[in-house]
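Appendix C: a fully annotated inverse folding record. The material below is reproduced so that readers can follow the format used throughout the book. The structure is listed first as tokens, followed by the designed sequence.
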């Protein structure tokens, strides 16, 4: 059935109106921040079985369904939304999602979406510039930080054990990673065929930060056991605490000892845009690879993550594939330049002859589908087709500018710091560290912290998470919503301590 564009226009109009009201109510803190109706009851309330069986939804039905759907979800724009590291998306990014939903240009190869591919290319190039990798670096956007970490470690495996793709994974590889790192890293070790046994936990201080002084011992132990370090991973910042590893110290150690260095900057890399907090990422340019999630602090919807490498060819070297319908080389007609950009033969393989200004993010030959100039990112991602991820990052940048996004980071980090300042003045609250980001952990009293979290969530008053630090469970607040202010934070402290 072709689109009835009048029906679409009505339904889209009603959707926009409902979403506008939803965000407005949420930002003003009106309804409960979180709803947790049991799934069976919720399926009933939303009429899911009937809609699936019978179809026939009209614009009016859609509006009613959407209202109920939103009411029963989690409100990320709400000031009391202090739970997970998920952005309260800004509306330019939301518009990008709508565009993607309708136009659907999932640019595995350039011909599937020239604008989408070019936008991603420029966004990645901008990210490379911000991280200090510059024109020599390479990168790609991918569906989330976990996949980005997996991709970066795949590149590490290809660099350290280039035959692993064809011959299987050698048994002597080791991944050096602190227990405080995101679980996707140890998971990646298993997915990549190293097995969890290849993970060597690095020693840390009591707050989970890598102890740089003890790195020589760790490396010595690994090498004496006859193992080869595939990569050493640091966090900027750690998921649980929001604290940063010493990237410069670790980077210098890795450079000196020939160890590949990966930085998981899923959450904290956006601080590169903040004058106040950029220093927390000092030394990041020493990393061989890093990841940066836009769906955390750059305010896009989930998911839009970048995996970037210092050497442009690393990602292309990580993958090999054959698919005659996508990968072929009309070599007489097409060159692939070192930036992964296809050029007609007459242009020659000049590295800087990219469709836009300056060199492109990537450097090894990308698989081409022949034809006129283009950008194919398919050779350096796990995905074949992927969403128009660059558009959401680009539209947020285009509307808010680097400055606007940097100010967002500064503001959210300041709010978490404010919670620490206010909380420390109150009896019964303990904060194990001064926050460095918008993630802050604390305890109230000596009782079960999870009971406090449950109570606040059952009341729909606050959405908090929790984390263990040194084996002790803490409450954990992540200040993602721009609507969170001092009043919210005072109310949180009041309600946590109201027994
Ligand atoms: C430091 C860090 N790395 C990786 C991830 C995984 O990101 P994603 O949820 O996008 O897969 C997270 C998510 O919270 C994170 O905090």
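Designed amino acids, in order:
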């Amino acid at each position: 059935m072709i689109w009835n564009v009048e029906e679409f226009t009505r339904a889209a109009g009603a959707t926009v109106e409902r979403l506008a009201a939803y965000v407005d109510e949420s930002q003003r803190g009106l309804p409960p921040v979180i709803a947790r109706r049991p799934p069976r009851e919720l399926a009933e309330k939303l009429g899911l079985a009937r809609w699936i069986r019978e179809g026939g939804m009209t614009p009016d039905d859609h509006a009613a369904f959407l209202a109920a759907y939103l009411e029963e979800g989690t409100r990320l724009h709400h000031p009391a939304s202090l739970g997970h590291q998920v952005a309260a998306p800004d509306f330019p990014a939301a518009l990008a999602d709508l565009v993607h939903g309708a136009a659907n240009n999932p640019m595995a190869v350039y011909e599937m979406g020239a604008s989408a591919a070019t936008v991603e290319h420029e966004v990645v190039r901008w990210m490379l510039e911000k991280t200090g990798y510059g024109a020599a670096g390479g990168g790609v956007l991918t569906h989330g930080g976990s996949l980005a970490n997996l991709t970066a470690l795949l590149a590490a495996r290809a660099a350290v054990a280039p035959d692993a793709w064809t011959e299987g994974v050698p048994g002597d590889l080791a991944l050096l990673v602190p227990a405080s790192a995101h679980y996707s890293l140890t998971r990646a070790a298993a997915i990549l065929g190293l097995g969890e046994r290849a993970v060597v936990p690095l020693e840390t201080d009591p707050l989970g930060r890598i102890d740089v002084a003890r790195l020589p011992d760790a490396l010595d132990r690994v090498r004496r056991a006859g193992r080869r370090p595939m990569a050493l991973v640091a966090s900027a910042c750690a998921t649980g605490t929001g604290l940063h590893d010493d990237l410069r110290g670790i980077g210098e150690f890795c450079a000196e000892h020939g160890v590949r260095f990966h930085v998981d900057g899923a959450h904290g890399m956006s601080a590169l845009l903040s004058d106040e907090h950029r220093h927390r990422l000092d030394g990041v340019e020493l990393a061989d690879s890093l990841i940066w999630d836009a769906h955390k602090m750059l305010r896009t919807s989930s998911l839009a993550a970048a995996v970037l490498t210092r050497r442009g060819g690393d990602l292309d070297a990580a993958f090999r594939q054959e698919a005659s319908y996508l990968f072929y080389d009309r070599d007489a007609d097409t060159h692939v330049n070192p930036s992964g950009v296809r050029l007609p033969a007459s242009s020659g393989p000049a590295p800087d002859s990219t469709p836009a200004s300056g060199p492109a993010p990537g450097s090894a030959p990308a698989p081409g589908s022949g034809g006129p100039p283009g950008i194919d990112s398919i050779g350096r991602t796990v995905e074949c087709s992927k969403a128009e991820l660059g558009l959401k990052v680009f539209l947020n940048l285009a509307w808010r500018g680097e400055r606007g996004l940097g100010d967002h980071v500064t503001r959210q980090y300041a709010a978490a710091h404010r919670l620490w300042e206010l909380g420390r003045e109150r009896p019964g609250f303990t904060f194990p560290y001064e926050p460095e980001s918008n993630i802050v952990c604390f305890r109230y009293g000596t009782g079960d912290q999870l009971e406090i979290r449950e109570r606040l969530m059952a009341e729909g008053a606050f959405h908090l998470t929790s984390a263990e630090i040194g084996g002790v469970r803490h409450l954990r607040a992540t200040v993602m919503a721009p609507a969170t202010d001092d009043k919210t934070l005072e109310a949180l402290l009041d309600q946590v301590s109201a027994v």
